[in-house]
């Protein structure tokens, strides 16, 4: 097992994304806490809207529950939209959420290191918050480049190494995980700081943008709902969210609990 849970294939292709509930709970808790920062799916659509024509063929790689896929379907009106993920459960959720818009959409279960697509098939490709699950993200980017037409656009999205670091300190201060502050970042393989360099291994980088997102968890239950979804910590307390919330309430100063993350976007083209 890798020391970094996000780079542990057994976890990533096992418990982490075996069902869509952990990702849905995490996203819900984060969205409720967010007090600044633009909507990521909307930003991706904005970045692509000016670069791809209506009727384009678009890939959403590591689509998860399909939040970005849905926005791309609405905003770009692609001729073909393919959502790709290694998790059958998450693809199922994406397909359900695409609903009536499914006609020209498809979902494909595949590893992003080996995309089951011909060369030169897409006008645009998105890989949001997924390449940090690879110890070799440049190999996935080579696959993305291979699938794009020459001149086709990729939008790659990740987070800063220090994302949510304030929560490491809270978990440590609450005595829930003594190693919380010394563990490496979940995003160590692909993050705001190496995004440009890794993207440039196989693509021509046009632009990189960074935006800070700020989160206020209103109370201990809200924070517990988020913490329980992150594989970073080894919290041995039993009793689920109520027990975790009670421990946070007892051991930490009064809420809100604040944390931040930088979200970074690279726009890159296949030369
Ligand atoms: C945090 S979710 C990203 C969700 C989505 N892109 C979004 O922005 O909402 C990470 C996704 O990457 C997928 N993933 C991880 N490793 C993968 C791999 N080797 N090939 C394809 N998908 C992978 C997971 O199954 C999961 O759905």
UniProtKB/TrEMBL annotation:
Domain named Methyltransferase: residues: 58-152
Write down the InterPro entries for this protein, in alphabetical order: Methyltransf_25, SAM-dependent_MTases_sf
Transmembrane region positions? none
Molecular function as annotated in GO: methyltransferase activity
Note the Gene3D superfamilies from the entry. Answer: Vaccinia Virus protein VP39
Alphabetically sorted, this entry's keywords are:
Methyltransferase, Transferase
Single GO BP term: methylation
| Name this protein carries in UniProt | Class I SAM-dependent methyltransferase
Q: Which organism is it from?
A: Micromonospora tarensis
At the highest ranks, the source species' classification is: Bacteria, Bacillati, Actinomycetota, Actinomycetes, Micromonosporales
């Amino acid at each position: 097992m890798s020391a970094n849970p996000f780079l542990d294939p057994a976890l990533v292709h096992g418990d982490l994304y075996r069902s869509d509930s952990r990702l849905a709970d995490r996203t819900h808790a984060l969205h409720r806490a967010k007090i600044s920062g633009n909507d990521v799916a909307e930003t991706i659509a904005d970045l692509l809207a000016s670069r791809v024509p209506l009727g384009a063929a678009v890939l959403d790689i590591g689509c998860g529950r399909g939040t970005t896929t849905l926005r791309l379907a609405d905003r770009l009106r692609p001729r073909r939209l393919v959502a790709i993920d290694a998790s059958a459960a998450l693809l199922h959720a994406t397909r359900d959420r695409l609903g009536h818009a499914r006609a020209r959409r498809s979902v494909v279960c595949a590893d992003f290191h080996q995309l089951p697509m011909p060369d030169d098939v897409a006008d645009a490709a998105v890989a949001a918050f997924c390449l940090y699950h690879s110890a070799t993200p440049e190999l996935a980017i080579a696959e993305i480049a291979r699938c794009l037409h020459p001149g086709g656009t990729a939008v790659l999205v990740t987070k800063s190494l220090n994302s949510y670091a304030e929560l490491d300190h809270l978990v440590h201060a609450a005595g829930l995980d003594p190693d919380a502050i010394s563990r490496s970042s979940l995003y160590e393989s692909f993050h705001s700081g190496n995004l440009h360099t890794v993207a440039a291994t196989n693509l021509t980088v046009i632009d990189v943008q960074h935006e800070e997102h700020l989160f206020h968890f209103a109370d201990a239950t809200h924070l517990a709902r988020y913490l329980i979804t992150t594989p970073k910590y080894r919290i041995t307390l039993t009793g689920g969210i109520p027990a975790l919330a009670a421990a946070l309430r007892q051991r930490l100063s009064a809420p809100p609990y604040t944390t931040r993350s930088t979200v970074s976007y690279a726009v890159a083209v296949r030369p």
